[in-house]
Amino acid sequence: MNEAGELIEPAVAERVIALALAHGGEFAELFAERRGGLTLAIDEARIESVQSGAEEGAGVQVLSGGTTYFAHVDGLDPADLERAAKEAASALRGDRAAPRPLRAAPASPQPIERRPEEVPAGRKAELLRELDERGRAAGGEVAQLMASYAEARRQVAVANSDGLLSGDDRTRVRIGVQVVAQRGDRVETGAETLGGHRGFELLDDDAASIAATAADKALGLLDAGPAPTGSMPVVVGGGFGGVLFHEMTGHGLEADHVQKGASVYAGKLGEAVAQPLLSAYDDGRLPGEWGSDAIDDEGTPTQKTRVIEDGRLVSFLYDRQRADRDGVASTGNGRRESFRHLPIPRMTNTYIAPGEAEPEAIIAEVEKGFYAVSFAGGQVDPATGDFVFGVNEGYLIEGGRVTKPCRGATLIGNCLEALAAIDAVGDDFWMKTGMCGKGGQKVPVGTGQGHVRIAAMTVGGTQA
Amino acid sequence: MSDLAVLAGQGVERAVAAGAADAEAYASEAEDREVRVHGGEVESFTAATRRGLGVRAWIGGRVGYGFGTDLSPEGVVTIAARAAEMARVADEDEFAGAPGEAGEAPELASLSDPSRAEWPAARVAELALAVERSALDADPRVVGVEQAVYFDGAERVAVAASSGVGGEFETSSCYAYLQALAEGEAGRETGLGFGLARGPAGLDPVAIGREGAVRASEMIGSGKPRSRNCPVVLDPTVAASFVDLLGKALGADAVQRGRSPFAERLGDAVAAEAFVLRDDGLEPEGFATAPIDSEGTPRQRTALIEAGELRAFLYDSYTARRGGVASTGNAGRSGYRAPPGVSASNLIVSPGSLDLEELLREAGEGVLINDVAGLHSGVNPVSGVFSVGASGRAIRAGEAAEPLREFTIASDLVSMLRAVQAAGATPRWVPFGGSISTPALLIGEMTVSGS
Q1: What angle do CA A169, A435, A41 make, to 5 degrees?
Q2: Which of A9, A260, B82, B318 could form a disulfide with B66 if both were Cys (CB 3.0 to 4.6 A apart)?
Q3: B120-149: pLDDT as tens digits
Q4: Could you name the CATH architecture of A4-222?
């Protein structure tokens, strides 16, 4: 059980909220945070970039007549918090509003078996050396390897004028590796990550194997030919392939975009947006997953939200403010990068639920197409639904079989069309970690799915 | 000496006391505010103060970094001790060491606009509302604005090192942008408009709004181009995205570690003569301009590509020592939370003599690129090979014609630079990613993949 009082005294929180409402406002909130972490990297077979830091601070917001007044400060002394409250209230001219007394609503943070701070830093350096050796052992054409280790702890407390007082204690660990393979002038890269809302136990089970995976990707690409160009069936791989759904659909379900009419899904609640074989969820409670938390950054307990049910759009993703506007309850998606940011609707772990098709059969039915295993990243304009994805690992599909590797392919399309064109969902399923950026804020998110097939999509290749 | 310089000095002392042979500290203090408006209403108003300290400690060729926000005497001791502790985890690197032998820092005109303080919250909110209104008024097809944002901030920085290198400076900046939504029968389009200045008085809200409106509404009814190799014209915002990539590839860190298509190519012909690029940390209009870089070395001007030849790379003190050259004053950092690394200051592409109409005429048949997406995921940083999503207009008979979207452009950085046929006459400052000033560029040939 985490008590918000470990970070701020309830009496202090009450005083700060009362100060924030000193000149009126319908709602006030205090968000306090202590964050610390350690990162290190290996490059050129040398441990470097060893960094550690700790920050603490708070943000106070007051809502009045549709406007949010927000101030944040470094430091958690009562004087710091009061300064933030006064600054947030300074533009208001109304009469004092009265907050409700605080009632503690304890949350249950994700259990952490081995606190990473208690593991000696030398052990983390050793792990990076293992990654380096494993990756380089994968083949003589591995020219470079970079790997990193990061641990972070965020203790947060939220108190608001509705009387809510809650907190969370979040520990995340992640390793990543990037391999460069070279043959003559040909240079290719492969990357892999492993992360979770977990302690050092995340890395107990042969974590260094991700280096071999990344190396195999880079080495495989050395044999890759140019990517095809044109419209064709595209099979998207599981796990990190889910980033496609995250980008092309997930962002359009975030209620801030929807309410501004800046989402292609606005006004489509209850309508069929995909074929009946597709269901999808956002689940901030998945144990140990990268995008999980006990509460969101407004104190709402995280939950499992069905967003697409048998092809029908059934829910958007809400924070408190946008939920109020639509007269619904928050779905626990009010997240922020830190106390220096306002909460906005964000995904947690978003995934397409496993379907019934066998992955082999999904590919076997394609005469000529493209198989996108992993993406280098992507971008979508939620208002138009246009998206573009760089494919990191991709292959041709010819005669129902995966044949030659391709490099430099890009998938481009429109999300309404692409989602509706998904005509097979695999029964295999796994999750991957990512960092999602929106409105200048980065938060950890999980993406997942089994193999899915899009009946037709534009592949932008490296050949005209 | 300011309180911030004193704080940095204490950071250095404490790190040496914690066992560091050499140390450097970076202290910063900033205040900023942001207004977001939507639908004629102020959506949010943010006021912020921040203060932090970052310390680098060197112990026998090992370097570590510690940072924090607790700037009490005990807090500084903790941060410095953390840096020394981290150094003990790192491996030895013969080139690691505190920055030294810095020359005289240049005298610069003020980098700070005091008018910021004279604009109260209500006045900057009005400016943001004017940006939104201007987009709605500019074209009847503009149906809304996703968000219009105003930001201004001032920052003070002090750097000190046990080698005696150090200094301090103050800067301010201010920007506004919006994403306009236009609607036609064929669907919905978005367009970005932006402007930046040292203070609010330097922004033109009407021009910012109008730019978003034009960019959104001219895309209505867009189709896909035919796949082919053809001339393309990059508008300044798109050219800036590529120049940003180029700046990273010309950083000595990428070069020394074999992660740049320009490694081993110093003195080679890597571009057409029409493409001239420099890094300029002293340019008065540049937002990265400062007397010193983020490890205390004086900023300077460095010719990068001239007469088609690669003239120099960008160095901080570490890469300079490793390369056996002098630092070019290109240590940059994203604040006290991270140690410095090589980064461009202001990248400036020299303007040519043709205006945009003339560039299009020169191109004849091709594509005008107004926006690219996914540049950072679509580029191989080692080889420079890229394929990125793009949108823009067709160029027919030397004029901008129908709008185009959902296509990709592909090439590699060096081939692209060698194919630059002309640079436009009107440069523009573009703040995305870095601080870049570039005109539009005409590229003789690129692969366009559409339908």
Answers
A1: 85
A2: B82
A3: 999 999 999 999 999 999 999 999 998 899
A4: 2-Layer Sandwich (3.30)
